[in-house]
Amino acid sequence: MTSSIFGVATSALTAARAALTTTTHNIANVHTEGYTRQRVLLTTPMPSFTGAGFIGAGVSVETVRRLYSEVLEVQRRDAASQAAGAAMLARQLAALDDLLADPLAGLAPALVGFFEAVHAVAASPADPAARQAFLARSAALATRFRDLDARLVALRDSANRRLEAAAASVNAYAVEVAQLNRRILESGSQSGQTHAPNDLLDRRDALLAQIGRYAAVSAVAQPDGTLNLFLSSGQALVVGGQAYALEVFRDPESPEDYAVGLRTGAVTLALRSADIAGGEIAGLVEFRDDALAQARRALGRIAVSLAAEVNAQHRLGLDLHGEPGGELYAVGAPRAVARASNAGDAQLAASVAVPSALRPSAYRLTWDGAAWQIVRLADGASWSAAALPQTVDGVEIALAAGTPAAGDSFRIEPTLDAAGTFALRLSEAARVAAAVPVRAASRAANAGSAAVATLEVLASPGGGFPGRLTLRMTAPGAFDLYDGPTFVGSATYVEGEPLTLAFAGWSVRLTLRGTPAAGDELYLDPNTNANADGGNFLALARLQERRVLDGATATWAQAWSETVSAVGNRTQEALIRADSSARLAEQARAAREAVSGVNLDEEAANLLRYQQAYQAAAKALAVSAALFERLLELGG
Question: What is the model's pTM?
Answer without folding.
Answer: 0.87
